[in-house]
Amino acid sequence: MSGPLRVLIVEDARLARRELRTLLAEFADVECVGEAEDVPAAREAIARLHPDLILLDIQLPSGSGFDVLDALDPLPAVVFVTAYDQYAVQAFEANALDYLLKPVAAARLATALDKARAQMAEQDAARAPQRRGTDLLAAHDQVFLRDGERCWFVALGEIRRIVVDGNYARVWFRDQNALLARSLTGLEARMQPGLFFRANRNTLVNLRMVRTVEPSVADGYDLGMDDGSQVEVSRRQARELRERLAL
To answer: Which helix (H) or strand (E) holds 185?
Structure first.
């Protein structure tokens, strides 16, 4: 990565924010670009400042740190900060980059910053051939998903299919499925062309995870996915599928 690591502090306690700023000031390649103390202020600051890393308190006055992450794309690196061990378990279930227990120790913060630098370097390398002069989401970009109390950070390339679920989208990935707080059409508009295929009006599918393609009785196709599930390709989309797969 080039330039300093730009960090946003999201913490409701003023003294805790001051302590984190003091700790960050010891790192020459780190810039604290701002602070926020609740969910709305955090979302506004992320949209305005585009930080590389968020130091995110889990308990906030107007919600939780997980509420901050809903509908953000692409996600910056996230390190959760908490005073309670049980939230650390939830943070790692979410595949967070790291978590810090309060009071934050300088050595643990240094480790978390190293992880952030390494992740950014890896993602920059992956995006280089894919993203030139565009802000569209690529395969290595992450989205934040939740299902009740369970949360995940998931790279778009890990997603198998995305299906309309009311006003939102339900996402199948790994051996899980969870809700994404945005519409299927809105999500598709934010992604690089070719990342997913519109199989029918309600479904986007990752063609890299298709194992079989069979003609259907409706003059479309049935796609057999790598997890054993099936996705129907509508008659309208059948021609595009043939072109994409050279059938």
So the answer is: helix 184-190
Q: How confident is the model at residue 131 (pLDDT cuts 50, 70, 90)?
A: very low
Full strand arrangement of the beta sheet holding 150-155:
150-155, 142-147, 176-180, 168-173, 159-165, 203-205, 197-200
Across the strands, what pairs with 100? Answer: 81
Length reported for the chain = 247
**Mean of pLDDT values over 114-127:** 79
Backbone angles phi, psi at 27, to 5 degrees: -105, 115
d(CA 58, CA 68): 9
- The DSSP code for 192 is P
With 0-12 CB in 10 A as exposed, 13-18 as middle and 19+ as buried, what is 183? Answer: middle
C-alpha 113: how far from chain center = 19
Task: Give the integer Cα–Cα distance in Å for 231 and 247.
Answer: 17
> How far apart are the C-alpha atoms of 85 and 42, rounded to whole Å?
23
Mean pLDDT of 19-29: 96
pLDDT for res 64: 86
- What's the pTM value of the predicted model, to 2 decimals? 0.78
3 state SS of 175: coil
Asked which of 38-47, 111-120, 128-137, 209-218 is least confident by mean pLDDT, the reply is 128-137
In sequence order, what are the residues at sequence separation of 6 or more whose Cβ sits closer than 8 angstroms to the Cβ of residue 166?
A: none
Written as six digits, the tokens of 210 are 């298709």
Structure-token pair, residue 227: 């997890």
How far is 229 from 101, CA to CA, in rounded Å?
A: 41
pLDDT for 128 beyond 60? no
**pLDDT above 90 covers what percent of the chain?**
55
End-to-end CA, the chain: 41
